[in-house]
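Sorry to interrupt, but I need a hand with the structure work. Please put the record directly below this note.
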Amino acid sequence: MSIKIDRDSLRAAALATKQTGNGLTIQIDYDKTTGIIYTAEHAGQSYTEYHHDDIIYICTAKLPLTQKQIADEIKIALEQNF
């Protein structure tokens, strides 16, 4: 399966995960149509909900992730979503 990933948003997502710690997590979501990765900072048990069928939840980073780790998580999520 070929996966479209926007490289700029992948880079930004990996950078965003470097801010984790002290209760701060980074939620990572992926748009299946555009390939754009969205991130949202959260403290505690909060989360961001998207009301669009093409945007799927990937993971909540509690530790820094590399671009490859995020891309691998997207692949796993897409395989589970089909």
In short: The chain has one domain: 7-81. Helices lie at 7-17, 67-81. The chain has a mean pLDDT of 92. The longest helix spans residues 67-81.
